[in-house]
Amino acid sequence: MHPPDAYHAAFGLISNRIGKTLSGISGHSLNSGESDRLILATKLEEQLVTLEGLVHRLTSQMLGQGADTRAGELGRNIMESINFMIMTAIDALQSQDEEEINTLEMLTGDRFEMMKRIRHNYFESEKDLSEQDRNFVLDITILFENAVHTLGRYGHLLRTST
Q1: In a 10 Å sphere around its CB, with 0-12 CB exposed, 13-18 middle and 19+ buried, how is residue 44 labelled?
Q2: CA distance 129 to 69
Q3: Does pTM top 0.70 for this prediction?
Q4: How many CB atoms lie within 10 A of CB 60?
Q5: DSSP summary character for residue 28
Q6: Cβ atoms 86, 151 nearer than 8 A
Q7: Residue 125 and residue 117: Cα distance in Å, rounded?
Q8: Closest CA to 70 of 140, 154, 8
Q9: Which residues contact 46 (CB under 8 A, 6 or more apart)?
Q10: What does the DSSP assignment read for 88-129?
């Protein structure tokens, strides 16, 4: 088992337990404020589960890609970008600082048009890419867009908690 698969499996066990715990809490008599906090915690957990799945798929794609290819270089740049956004999300969660949340929201704005341009420019400048590399670029840019969207939703939820 590759390390990403082991981490993914471990995360699945932990997130499943967290989900069951949150669900169990909902069975208690909660006041309005407690219910709101439980719903927010559940939504934050859902975004983390989605994000972890996307990062796992990206990591798996990267492991399957040749390390020396130009497409692999683009993949590494995308992974570095996601890493930076995740670190920003962690800082925002830990500090609950308005500026950190603003930074996360700025970083995770809609990236559809930007990624579309990157794909088109990349395919235009790298006309000799193999079909495998072209598919890889398409896959990782779509996963990147989805991860950015998920982190944006996470930032929005953090904002509602402050």
Answers
A1: middle
A2: 9
A3: yes
A4: 15
A5: S
A6: yes
A7: 12
A8: 140
A9: none
A10: HHHHHHHH--HHHHHHHHHHTS--HHHHHHHHHHHHHHTTT-
CA distance 121 to 117: 6
For residue 160, report the phi and psi dihedrals to the nearest 5 degrees: -70, -20
Residue-number span of the structural domain to which 141 is assigned: 3-161
**Interatomic CA distance for residues 3 and 22, integer angstroms:** 28
Report which DSSP code applies to 65.
S
Predicted confidence (pLDDT) at residue 125 exceeds the cutoff of 60 = yes
133/118 Cα distance (integer angstroms): 15
Closest by Cα among 115, 109, 119 to 144: 115
Distance CA 102, CA 95 (A): 12
61 vs 135: CA distance, rounded Å: 10
CA-angle at 108, arms to 104 and 112, nearest 5°:
175
Total of domains in the chain: 1
pLDDT exceeds 70 at position 66: no
Residue 10 binned pLDDT confidence (cut-offs 50, 70, 90): very high
Residue 1 pLDDT > 70: no
CA angle 16, 18, 23 (to 5 degrees): 95
